[in-house]
Amino acid sequence: MGKVLFVEYPKCSTCKKAKAWLDAHGVTYLDRHIVEDNPTAAELAEWHVRSGLPLRRLFNTSGMLYRERNIKALLDDGMDDADAYALLAEDGMMVKRPLVVGEDFVLVGFKEAEWEEALL
Q: Which pTM value belongs to this model?
């Protein structure tokens, strides 16, 4: 497998664990800081499709911004995909992490079994 993009927030304990997993398994990756280089709305739209997941799974539901801005209510009220991508693109802390972006897949969050299947 070629190099993947690893999108992380370096202070996040789950991201640290995921990065250690990548290193331990010899997965080559390009590291990207999600706050300093937040994904664009276009990237998020593409990654959403590749992930095969519901759009809500791209949101960091345990984050302060998610709660402060009452994002759940906005999504429940039928926010369209374009508005959701624009909202996610505003601040990297809004996006669920870590993300691993490959040629034909995107992994959201760190679930070891999913990572083994996709990356090894």
A: 0.94
